[in-house]
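Expect sequence, tokenised fold; for instance:
***
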Amino acid sequence: MRLLIIRHGDPDYEHDTLTPQGEREAELLGQELSHTPIDAAYVSPLGRAKRTAQLALAGRDIPCTECAWLREFDPRIPRPDREGLSITWDWLPEHWTAEPDFLSEDTWLRPEPMDAGHVAEACQEVCTGLDVLLDRHGYHREGQIYRAQRPNHDTIALFCHFGVESVVLGHLLHISPMLLWHGFCALPTSVTTVYTEERRQGTASFRVSEYGALPHLRRAGVEPSFSARFCECFHDDTRHD
């Protein structure tokens, strides 16, 4: 089985939809995906993801199910350098790397900020939702592996958001989401491909073959949107915080 984890197009956060750039990105994504058989699709309830799925799957008879757990991962926690609460996936490197617990799948939820923001409960909702979906498609989680109860070559598309994508990947690959949130960046309409490996009959694991792929934009000569990134150099006229 293959999972295509697709981030929404360039967002208009104020209106929870896509910018004109995002609409173009999603249309180009649809052209790219037209050559890919997709057996089922699941989408976040947020407008920017739903619009991306609508444009990317236009003209195709593909069932698309809305899943609350695919919405953006939005718990708020204290951040060391500012007052108030911030999203979990936006800490300065000098802060998150200084906390050893953040680096391990087994301990990343232990630090006090995570407890204060009830992050474990939000993470559990995502992981449970994902496992229910995978079970429906033939792969049942047992501990750290999956039982291939009905092994298949189906392709499943998930239209969602960068924050929740990292939680999904962390669950499948046994990696702390803090490493994924801060070490990787899935740009708008990027596609991450995860596939099953069943090296022994009945026992499956997941492996990433492509992360954040954007061939549909490259071929069209369209520069990827900047959303989710920060300035490459401090003096750049781009996003710092």
